[in-house]
Design goal:
Number of helices: 1
Number of strands: 52
Helix content: under 10%
Strand content: 35-45%
Shape: elongated
């Protein structure tokens, strides 16, 4: 065995990638393997021709590989170590990762072995036929695929969305509390589990981490074996409070647990809650979070992108911001009464969205089979109610292209402009020329708040500012005043802007955020 220093490394670039060999090939001629190195878990270093520890060895650049050509090479990646993208573990190669980071794209080929117990992989990995992968900790940020003929043992850590166990792969998950759509899986069925399109598989891994897998989040679970194994102990029901950046992370919470994130707190990606309570009062919750049969209360802070609310989850948004590209899946409920629901939110079939107050940013899509009720708040442009969605707007003063509208449903043409006052007194506009796509929206008249025509003045940027103006109302924005995003005014209402007061962002495209059909804006 050569000494574990950088100049003793022998890396072979993957044929066909065209990557330059960035590491000097200096060292002794390889010796035959001292014994079998292809077993679960890290092998004895004495069995390898070459051993490299990162650190102290330098980082490994992109496009490199270990093993192959009859060589046996062990790389031990720990805290502070780094491996670039497009890294291959070939036959005779073993990568043991207890910390550090791999940039993107690790491929474990036939005869190669990868043991992950700490650190993080930025994006994507593949286990090919004949490879062996054991995951007991650490984090795979997004995308790991186990191909037919591979062996993948999942015992701990966190695997983000797009975990793909292909037919014929040997994926085995170790833990407890395996539930399929909230129902315990009979012992006789644990040996072979496959998920249909809307199924949700939840459980607790051997290290106590929770997991949620579902094709709704682009996971593929076919022919997976679930093995019951001992957990570290029963769930600790002492409330968990995080108010510092990246503490010893809980990867999620399980039945009976309560988690609170406060100002200053920050967690990395893939936090998942199953049958638990989550309170977001401040701080940042990383992207790709998931919630199944859990109550989520968001009153402040920021929940990052690509989050998923699954069946049984109820989200109460009263403040803060729920990130973009998130989804409410069948059986979930989202109540928006404050805060901001981020861009490109999708309400999937079977989900329910109640918009009472707060801000719904651009590009909310309600798919066929979803339920959306609108009683108030501010709604951004590019609002897409698809055919087959069950959407209902509660309010009055309905007008289509400037004329009173008495129909019970609304389907918007490309050049149509529909205005309404919502049940909470907010003005709202749907316009075909700003990419709103409205099909079959039910209109339910309700008694509106009394119209207040007292002139309004905005001199601050606080959250008490109005989201729009009704017919006959006037508003003056003076120095220090800021109009909020998606401010909308209709039918003879007037806004006077006195510099250096501020219009909403993106006023170069006024229909996007500051909409004024038949209203009047007086520059100062």
């Amino acid at each position: 065995m050569t000494n574990p220093v950088f100049h003793r490394m022998r890396f072979t670039p993957l044929v066909g990638r065209g990557w330059p060999l960035a590491i000097a090939l200096v060292g002794l001629l390889a010796m035959p393997a001292a014994g079998q190195v292809f077993n679960a878990g890290p092998a004895d270093s004495a069995l390898f021709d070459t051993v490299i520890n990162l650190p102290p060895a330098p980082s490994i650049s992109s496009g490199q590989s270990i093993g192959g050509d009859g060589q046996t090479t062990q790389v031990n990646l720990g805290d502070g170590g780094f491996i670039g993208s497009l890294f291959d573990v070939l036959e005779g190669g073993e990568l043991n990762m207890t910390g550090g980071r791999i940039s993107t794209a690790i491929d474990v080929r036939s005869g190669g072995e990868f043991n992950l117990s700490g650190g993080s992989i930025g994006f994507t990995g593949q286990a090919f036929s004949g490879s062996f992968v054991t995951i007991t900790g650490g984090l795979i940020n997004q995308g790991f695929e186990a191909l037919a003929g591979s062996t993948v043992l999942l015992k701990g850590g966190a695997v983000s969305r797009r975990f793909e166990a292909r037919a014929g792969s040997g994926v085995e998950i170790f833990g407890q509390d395996f539930l399929l759509n909230g129902v315990a899986i009979p012992a006789a069925n644990l040996a072979n589990v496959s998920l249909a399109d809307t199924d949700v598989l939840t459980g607790v891994l051997e290290d106590g981490s929770t997991f949620i897998f579902s094709p709704q989040a682009q996971d593929v679970i076919l022919d997976v074996k679930l093995t019951q194994s001992a957990l570290p102990g029963p769930a600790d029901t002492t409330p968990i409070v995080v108010d510092t950046a990246n503490p010893v992370r809980p990867s999620g919470v399980r039945a009976g647990q309560t988690f609170t994130l406060r100002a200053g707190g920050e967690l990395p990606i893939n936090f998942e809650a199953v049958d638990a309570t989550v309170n977001i009062e401040g701080g940042v919750l990383g992207d790709h979070s998931g919630f199944s049969r859990s109550t989520v209360n968001v009153s402040g802070g920021f929940v990052d992108a690509f989050s998923n609310a699954y069946a049984g989850a109820t989200l109460h948004l009263t403040g803060g911001e729920w990130g973009r590209f998130s989804d409410a899946h069948s059986g979930s409920v989202v109540n928006v009464s404050g805060g901001t629901l981020g861009n490109f939110f999708e309400a999937q079939a079977g989900s329910t969205i109640n918009i009472n107050q707060g801000v719904v940013s651009r590009s909310l899509t309600a798919l066929a089979g979803s339920n959306v009720d609108i009683t108030g708040g501010a709604i951004g442009f590019d609002f897409d109610l698809q055919a087959g969605s069950d959407a209902e707007l509660f309010g009055g003063e309905f007008r289509l292209n400037g004329e009173a509208f008495t129909g019970s449903t609304l389907t918007l043409g490309d050049n149509d402009v529909f205005t309404a006052t919502l049940a909470d007194g907010s003005s709202h506009i749907f316009a075909g020329n700003r990419s709103d796509d409205i099909v079959g929206l039910k209109l339910t008249p309700v008694e509106l708040p009394t119209l207040d025509t007292t002139p309004q003045v905005i001199s601050t940027a606080d959250h008490g500012r109005p989201s729009g103006l009704r017919a006959g109302q006037t508003l003056t924005v003076v120095e220090g005043g800021v109009l909020g995003n998606f401010f909308e005014m209709v039918d003879g209402s007037t806004v006077s802007i006195c510099p250096p007061a501020e219009l909403p962002a993106a006023t170069a495209s006024p229909l996007h955020r500051f909409t004024t059909p038949r209203g009047r804006v007086n520059p100062g």
